[in-house]
Amino acid sequence: MPFVRLNDPGYLLALAVIFLFALPLHELAHAWVAERLGDPTPRRYGRVTLNPMAHLDPIGALMLVLAGFGWARPVPVNPLYLRYGPRVGMALVGGAGPLMNLLLAGLGILAYRMGLEIGALPPRLILSFLNAWIFINIGLAVFNMLPLPPLDGYRVLQGLLPPDLAYAYARLEAYGPMLLLLFLVLDRQLGLLGSVLRPFYALAFRLMHL
Q1: Residue 27 known to be catalytic
Q2: Residue 18 in contact with residue 138, Cβ under 8 Å?
Q3: Structure pTM?
Q4: Which of 20, 30, 52, 141 has the highest count of CB atoms within 10 angstroms of its CB?
């Protein structure tokens, strides 16, 4: 990932803020939408909270440090409680987390643009922080929208497919961790995720410098 710079104080500051706020907000979005759709399970398990310790996954956090994308602990959801049915309900719950990351990236772009508009460039540390904040949040959104179980994109696609195809697609769930591991191994060799992210990064860069 082009923005992974462990020797950059602004990047490290962005990582710390993402651990404390962005990842919890991602999971809180899942929990909040599930609760709004009628499922009491997330609150029962203490996930309707901004407390980072309730959401962080050690391996997902390590991947965020090393690769610029990662994940947190999945929010427990009972699809049978969800309004609009299990498939559509889970698609709405699944899409809420990546949408939150895109919103956070958008706020970062807005802050960057405001700094340019007033003609007062912030210190280098803040510029580096905003760049890392924007691109890491985009990376989190896009990575989590990959249509692989147990990522959010799997639930979203399952909700969009016709019932017969969704049922066949659900069989992949048993192989989810293995498929995700295979993707990460292939990504190291082929740069698959970088290819997917490139147009999103290009769009963000254009929005930052309009």
Answers
A1: yes
A2: no
A3: 0.90
A4: 30
